[in-house]
Amino acid sequence: MEFINLKIQDQNIQQKILKNIQKVINSGQFILGQEVAQFEKNIAQCLNVKYAIGVASGTDALFLSLVALGIKQGDEVITTPFSFIATANTISRVGATPVFADINPANFNIDPEQIKTKITKKTKAIIPVHLFGQMADMDAIMALAKKHNLAVIEDACQAIGACSKTKKAGTIGSYGCFSFFPTKNLGAYGDAGLVVTNQKDIAEKIKVLRAHGAKKQYHHQILGFNSRLDEIQAAVLNVKLKYLDQWNEQRISHARYFTEHLQDIKQLIVPPAISDLSHIFHQYTIRAQKRNQLKKFLEKNKIPTMVYYPVPLHLQPMFKCLNYQRNDFPQTEKASREVSSLPIYPGLAQKDQDFIIKKIKEFYDSR
Ligand SMILES: Cc1ncc(COP(=O)(O)O)c(C=O)c1O
User: Fold this and answer.
1) Pair 84, 218 in one domain
2) Do residues 219 and 259 share a domain?
3) 26 CA → ligand 1 middle, Å
4) Is residue 47 part of a domain?
5) 184 is a catalytic site residue
6) In the predicted model, is pLDDT for residue 367 greater than 90?
7) 93 pLDDT band (50/70/90 cuts)?
8) 69 and 194 in one domain?
């Protein structure tokens, strides 16, 4: 068994993808051609957002959003300490200071009550992350942002297609940032990313920033970067996008099955079963007593699991300069010690899920 098996996901559509890639090769247009334009149109429609701008990665989507906001040295940006490093290192990359706020233990996402305690005169923006595919409390975060006049950059890298009430992840704040890293719910065949927004001026700015600061070729108005989504990745994504909803539904259905069969194990806390799209299960993450022993036991039985994330951001050596200490964010640190993500990819066989369930039960029965 693999933690994620992309071959299963691709097997029925690979010919279509190869055909689309061949089309790009035949066209000789590899940068900002028809496929990128088509993908930007397709995904904007799918997310119900006005503008979508393809960029080189999810990391660059966050970075360019921060640059576009003019965030710089001396500014503070509040975010979660329980995320992938790119959420916070992009803040440092523009010279600003990441300020962490602890998570809500119920959903692993930044806690709006904790954000409140971190707002200062220097705060310019909030970056909530929809971790593991589950939407953060955007109503409360947007209310805080409005009250304090802060920008909101949604890190929706793990949550494409998640939807709270009527709005999709990434379309609620000023900017929504997505990653198409191959293992994401919508994955390219390499690095790729996207910024979405409903504001025309913001969209124009990101377009200029991704292309060396030029609106017109060879006329550079501002300091820009080389961060374009390339045609071959867009050709892959244009095919795969059509399957996103069905893949997300499969993940939700796998999650429901796990929850149904694991919820009675008293040494575990499982994600509650959901009936809507507010969690599209990029990861199915449980809290487990004796987590490390369980991981070893499952490994012995050829069941791979992952720990996202073993070291919270405030305790990463690269952020030593921020002077955070152990116990600064007790909920995040507790989560780091307890979390374990199980295989959940579309195409995961029920017999594999049954085997995982059986072995987890066996582990706790014997202790
Ligand atoms: C929460 C989060 N933020 C940012 C990123 C960065 O995206 P990328 O790997 O495309 O640069 C990722 C994915 O790796 C992520 O999971």
Assistant:
1) yes
2) no
3) 31
4) yes
5) yes
6) no
7) very high
8) yes
Distance, CA of 314 to CA of 83 (rounded, Å): 10
Domain termination site, one of 215, 242, 269: 242
Query: Of 192, 211, 242, which marks where a domain is finished?
Result: 242
Same domain as 188, residue 282? no
Please state, rounded to an integer, the average pLDDT across all residues of the chain. 97
Asked if residue 260 and residue 230 are part of one domain, the reply reads no
Pocket test for ligand 1, best of 179, 186, 227, 233 (most atoms within 8 A of CB): 179
Q: What is the CATH number of the domain that holds 323?
A: 3.90.1150.10
Asked if residue 353 and residue 287 are part of one domain, the reply reads yes
Per DSSP, the residues of 297-325 read HHHHTT---B-S-SS-GGGSGGGGGGT--
Distance CA 198, CA 202 (A): 8
**Residues above pLDDT 70, as percent of the chain:** 100
> Which of 110, 115, 81 shows the shortest CA–CA distance to 324?
81
- Residues 184, 205, 240, 295: which is the catalytic one? 184
Instruction: Report which residue type is found at 314.
Output: H
Across residues 46-74, what is the average pLDDT? 98
Of residues 151, 164, 147, 2, the one with CA closest to residue 77:
151
When divided into structural domains, the chain yields a total of: 2
Q: Which residues pair with 123 in a beta bridge?
A: 76
Residue 1 lies in a domain: no
Banded pLDDT at 273 (limits 50, 70, 90): confident
Give the C-alpha separation, 233 to 311, whole Å. Answer: 31
Q: Please report the pLDDT score of residue 274 as a whole number.
A: 82
Same domain, 257 and 184: no
Name the strands in the sheet holding 268-269, side by side, starting at the edge strand that comes first in the sequence.
Answer: 268-269, 284-288, 339-342
State which amino acid sits at residue 8: I
Distance from residue 58's CA to the centre of ligand 1 (Å):
5
